[in-house]
Amino acid sequence: ELNGESALRAVILHELVHAADDERYDIGGLFARCATTDAVRAANALIEGHAQLVAHELAPRFACAEGFGTYTRAITALPKGVVESGDEGARIVLRTLTGFFTSSYIEGEAFFVALRAEGGEEAVQRAFREPPADATLIARPAWYLHPEQRPHLAFELDPALDAFLVDSETDGWAAQRVSVSAADLRNAFAPLAVDEVDELCARMHQNRVQALTHPRTGSQLVLGVFEFGTPAEAEAYLAAYERMQHLRDETMKTGAFRILSAEYERLAPPDPSGLRFEKRVQAGVNIDLTALCVV
Predict the structure, then answer these.
(1) Cα(first)–Cα(last) distance of the chain, in Å?
(2) Edge to edge, what strands does the sheet with 258-267 contain?
(3) In the sheet where 220-228 sits, what is the strand order?
(4) Which residue stretches of the chain are H helix?
(5) Structural contact between residues 258 and 280, judged by C-beta atoms closer than 8 angstroms
(6) What distance in Å separates the CA atoms of residue 249 and residue 245, rounded to the nearest whole number?
(7) What Cα–Cα distance (Å) separates residue 61 from each residue in 187, 203, 272?
(8) Whole-angstrom Cα distance, residue 211 to residue 217?
(9) CA distance 43 to 128
């Protein structure tokens, strides 16, 4: 289907919108002004989402409405061979990639649909003049349009991560800091129902994730900080996370990426409330994974 004339017309139409947007909004300059990884992701969603919006509207005029649908579905679809293989580990890896495309293309288009519905073309142009600071605002266009509607944030997460870096003895490690998008979380929690994951996302006020990679060994250290409105909402997130991990243990017993062993320990007062687990994962080589999740 992707080799058909209709899909080819849709792809060309999408790329022509990029060319027009570059002339009008200076896409290169938009990226050059991005100071963080989050800002880059948000800018990418603006660029791809607007191209999708305009191409979607023009596709019938250029006889490629069907091809646009085919092309858009292909952006976030897993390869047929992976779907049919039963290899859940491979699906998890590829879903991580499709989460980026979902955030950029699908949520990016939805962002502009919401902006246009409320503020017309002026709101669309404002998004390029004053781009969202992170992908969270792409998924929540109401927060972009009306910042006062965003829940009050009780904590500043970046200083906490900065303090972690100072104490972690990771000088020289490659570092990346991002906010996890709703699309990322849907893919991470994929064994669970989409409605349940969306409810967890709706209760989350903000998050920041710091990833560190050793330049020689490839060892990784990841710290995520998530803010919820109440302790009960945080506990619900942790319970869902634990259930998702157990489901993965069951579905990833075979395949190129498989879990060889897993041990769990629930933490309770006087220790912080939370969960600790250790896993050994086969992914070409054995990888030992230790996770500590506290509320």
Answers:
(1) 48
(2) 258-267, 274-283, 285-294
(3) 174-178, 204-213, 220-228
(4) 5-25, 27-32, 37-58, 65-76, 80-85, 88-101, 107-129, 135-139, 141-145, 157-167, 182-188, 194-203, 231-251
(5) no
(6) 6
(7) 35, 41, 60
(8) 15
(9) 9
Contacts of 130 (CB under 8 A, 6+ apart): none
Question: What does the pLDDT look like over 142-198, one tens digit per residue?
Answer: 999 999 999 888 889 999 888 888 777 777 888 888 898 888 888 888 888 889 999
Do residues 63 and 5 touch, judged by C-beta distance below 8 A? no
What is the spatial distance between Cα 112 and Cα 109, in angstroms, rounded to a whole number? 5
- Within a 13 Å sphere around the CA of 185, how many CA atoms are in the beta-carbon half? 28
Cα-based distances in Å from 25 to 33, 95, 138? 13, 31, 18
Instruction: State yes or no: cis peptide before 215, omega within 30 of 0.
Output: no
Find all residues with CB under 8 Å of 245, minimum gap 6, and list them. 262, 264, 277
- How far apart CA 193 and CA 203 sit, in angstroms, is 16
One-letter amino acid at 187 equals N
Per-residue pLDDT tens for 194-214? 899 999 988 999 999 998 888
CA-to-CA distance for 228 and 202, rounded, in angstroms? 9
pTM as predicted = 0.83
Task: Give the chain's length.
Answer: 295
For 189, counting Cβ atoms within 10 Å of its Cβ (0-12 exposed, 13-18 middle, 19+ buried), the class is buried
For residue 59, give the amino acid letter. Answer: A
Q: How far apart are CA 286 and CA 295, in angstroms?
A: 30
